[in-house]
Specification:
The chain has 196 residues and is mostly helical. The chain has helices at residues 4-30, 43-56, 70-81, 90-106, 115-125, 148-161, 164-170; strands at 134-135, 138-139. The chain has a two-stranded antiparallel ribbon. The relative contact order is 0.10.
Length: 196
């Protein structure tokens, strides 16, 4: 048989739960579900990577970057090539700086922004120095320092264009190519570029 003290304690637990539970549920709903467990990135860094890739390569009539797993691919590459270090890497500091810029300009980190706000950040970042043309791997002229946005964009495009789905279903793929024709019109390939 419950005494008065036990009844009051149980009521206070129920009242506290009724107040706290909606707040917890609301805070959990604000963080988008990743759908995968990062091996290298923290959850917040992985959310940034996912949002960056989805902004750069959204799903259209062709698969987007997330459709072919570029976010998981980059995470695996980073985990495999940086397993022996506990230091903060340039990619991680770049993510934090990009997030800080988003927070300064829009009051939220990058993955929480609306599409047009992300687009504004990308447009401004596109004005940063570009890679100089290269001949046989050597830059022509002086190579300016390439910031996080461009280096990460290169990695995302590399992951996207080297994925099996894009290489075989979006680009023209011929596993046993014949003679080289550097002046073949796209009309002869169905309007698609070659993957190899």
């Amino acid at each position: 048989m419950l005494n008065r003290r036990d009844v009051l304690r149980n009521i206070s637990w129920l009242a506290g739960g009724a107040i706290i539970t909606p707040a917890l549920l609301h805070s959990c709903q604000n963080e988008p579900e990743l759908g995968w467990k990062p091996a290298f990135f923290s959850d917040d860094e992985a959310r940034f990577v996912t949002a960056y890739i989805d902004t750069l390569l959204p799903t259209t009539d062709t698969p987007g970057g997330l459709d072919v797993g570029v976010d998981r691919f980059i995470d695996k590459v980073m985990a495999a090539t940086n397993a022996d270090t506990d230091e903060l890497l340039p990619m991680q500091t770049g993510i934090r700086d990009f997030d800080e810029d988003a927070r300064t300009r829009f009051g939220k980190v990058f993955h929480e922004l609306e599409a047009d706000q992300r687009g504004q950040l990308f447009s401004d970042a596109e004005k940063s120095p570009r890679y100089q043309p290269a001949v046989w791997g050597t830059a022509v002229g002086e190579q300016p320092p390439i910031g996080f946005y461009r280096s990460f964009k290169s990695m995302v495009l590399w992951g996207y264009l080297s994925s099996e789905k894009i290489g075989t279903e979006v680009l023209v793929y011929d596993p046993v190519p014949g003679e080289y024709d550097g002046d073949m019109p796209l009309s002869e390939t169905g309007g698609r570029s070659w993957s190899l």
